[in-house]
Write a structure and sequence with these properties.
Elements: H1 2-16, H2 26-39, H3 52-83, H4 91-124
Helix pairs in contact: 1-3, 2-3, 3-4
């Protein structure tokens, strides 16, 4: 549940920023917003002497990317379902798949950061 709250917070943050130029095409507008969100969220490089805070920073970056992709995906999937005759898209299944895979990826990175932090603390003591 905390994962869903953090994604919702990231989405609100993205949507509160200045918006790109308006488009009459909702998919094109969603794409412009997605690109703008990515451009404003450049990842910091991770060097060979990286620590747990570097992994946490990368997880935070990925979480913002996932939130932006979620907003974009929310616009394009219904458009496909309406535009292409005879196509049935299970939006709930796609949403669950996206949420699960995103949460899994973030969990792996955050667990690695936690393990690294524990090793750093052990070596320091």
């Amino acid at each position: 549940m905390a994962q869903a709250e953090s994604i919702t917070t990231a989405i609100r943050e993205l949507m509160s920023r200045g918006r790109p130029l308006k488009s009459t095409n909702p998919v094109r507008a969603a794409h412009s917003e997605f690109v703008a969100a990515l451009a404003g969220n450049v990842p910091h490089p991770i060097h060979s002497d990286a620590g747990s805070e570097d992994l946490e920073g990368r997880a935070d970056h990925l979480e913002r990317v996932v939130a932006a992709l979620h907003v974009y995906r929310t616009a394009i999937i219904p458009d496909m379902a309406q535009t292409i005759p005879g196509v049935t898209l299970d939006r709930r299944y796609l949403d669950n798949l996206f949420q699960d895979s995103s949460a899994d990826a973030l969990r792996v990175i955050r667990n690695a950061a936690k393990e690294m932090r524990e090793n750093e603390n052990w070596r320091a003591s």
